Please model this.
Amino acid sequence: MTKKVFIFDDNIEILELCTEILQDLGLEVKTTPTTNKVVEQVKSYMPDLIFMDNWLPDISGVEATRLLKNDDALKDIPVLYFSANSNISELASEAGADDYLAKPFDIDAFEEMVKKYLGL
Model:
């Protein structure tokens, strides 16, 4: 079964780049520029991995990640915090994310992280 990745980011170029990289790895990808109804969005897709940007319309990446981690059906899906903030490690830990990747990111590092969390 194809592994699924969901990316929350309001930067369309980042979404397109990440989608291309992930599809090259044989993954199914869903992207959205908004965290509106984040729990419902994730439940309707049930991804194997989530990338969460910090600055998003509606609710912040920290709040969105907390909502996902507080939901019994979703809390075991790894959330990778994905941001250009200088304090990304603090934000990721405040959010309860499983890991983080600073932007701008190295494509190899992005792929390695995806492979690590999806067991590829």
